[in-house]
TrEMBL record:
Record gene name: sufD
Family per record: Belongs to the iron-sulfur cluster assembly SufBD family.
Annotated Pfam families: SUFBD_core (PF01458)
NCBIfam families noted in UniProt: sufD
Protein name as annotated: Fe-S cluster assembly protein SufD
Record lineage: Bacteria, Bacillati, Actinomycetota, Actinomycetes, Mycobacteriales
InterPro entries cross-referenced by the UniProt entry: Fe-S_cluster_assembly_SufBD, SUF_FeS_clus_asmbl_SufBD_core, SUF_FeS_clus_asmbl_SufBD_sf, SUF_FeS_clus_asmbl_SufD
Amino acid sequence: MATGVKGAVEGESPVQNPGAGAAINKGEVFSSFDVDAFEVPSGRDEAWRFTPLRRMRGLHDGSAVRDGDATVEVRPVEGVRVETVERTDARLGAAGVPSDRVAAQAYSGFEKATVISVGTETEVAEPIVVTVTGPGEGKTAYGHTQVRLANFAVATVVIDQRGSGTYAENVEFVLGDSAKLTVVTVQDWADDALNAAAHHVKVGRDATLRHIAVTLGGELVRFTATVRYDGPGGDAELLGLYFADAGQHFEQRLLVDHTVPNCKSNVVYKGALQGDPQSHKGDARTVWIGDVLIRAAAEDTETFELNRNLVLTDGARADSVPNLEIETGEIIGAGHASATGRFDDEQLFYLRARGIPEDAARRLVVRGFFHEVIQKIAVPEIRERLEAAIEAELAAIGS
C-alpha cells in the first residue's frame, strides 16, 4: 500500500524533531504526515509521560499491524454530501498535520477516508450522525474522517464510537468563514478497546465551533485535539465529560493555538473516577493536559480553560495540568483553573439535613457536577443517553 508523504499544511513550518525531553514552545511542536519522521516515544517524553506505553499495543513503536477494518456509517441527511475517498485526495490534511507518532501512524495506515461536506450558506436541520464501530476484539485498524463546512454553513455532527479492538484515527474539522459547527463525539467503546484519536480543527474567519468530547468506555482512550484559527473573529468552545472505572485509562490533551487577533476560546472538561482497590484491573486513571498558546500577533484574545475531577472512591487517580503561554500583553483576558477532590462534605450534609438519604444525595452531587457540560449538548437523545450512563456508573458502586 502506497502511503505517500505530505509536507506541512499552508502556513505551518514544522521544526526539526527536538527529541525527548526538549523544552520548546507549544506552537513549535514537530509535525509530519510521515511516521518515520518521529522517534519512538518513551516515558521520558513530555507528551507521553502519563501514557502507559506498554498498553498501547504497538501503536507507538510501529509493531501494530493493520489486520482489520473499522466500519464508518453516516446517516443520510438532506443538504449533506458524504464521500468515501482515496488517501491521495488533496483535501485530506487541510485542518492539520499529525504531531505525534501514533497520529502519523494512523495517517499512514488508513486506505479509505470519509469526507462529509456542507455547502455554502446551507443550514442542516438535523444532526449528522456518524457511527464508528471498531474492528473487533484482537484486531487493529486505522481511520480518517473529515468534516467540511463551507462559508456561512451551519451543522451539528455526532460521532458515536463503539465496539472492540484497537483503532487509531485522525479526525478533521474545516470551518469556512462564518460557519457554525457543533460536534459531539461519544467514545463508548467496549471494555477491551483501545482508541487513539487526534482531532484537528481549522476555524475560519468569524466561524464558531462547539466541540464536546464524551469518554465513557474503553480500556485505554488517548484523545488529542488541536485548534488553530484561520482568520480573526473565530470562537472555539471545547467541552469534555469523562467517567473512568477500575482499569481504565482516559487521557485528553488539548492545544488551542491563537495565531490571529480577536479570537476567543473556552475550555471546560469535567471527569469522575471510581476505582476498586481489590480489583485485578488496576486503578482508574485520568489525565487532562490543557495548553493554550497566545502568539504575539494574537492581540485582543479572550480565553479561559478549566478542568475539574471528582474522585468517588479509593483506587482512582486524576492528573490535571493546565498550561497558558502568552506572547503579547494586548489581550482581553486569559486564565486557567484546575481542581481535583472528593465529594463536598458540606453539600452532602446540606442534602442529608433535609431528609435525603446519603446514596441519593451523592447521586445529586454527581449530576450537578456534570450538569454544566450536559446542558450544552443540543441533541436530546445524546443528552438522555449520557444521563442514563452516569446513573449506571453510580449504581455500579452503590452511590
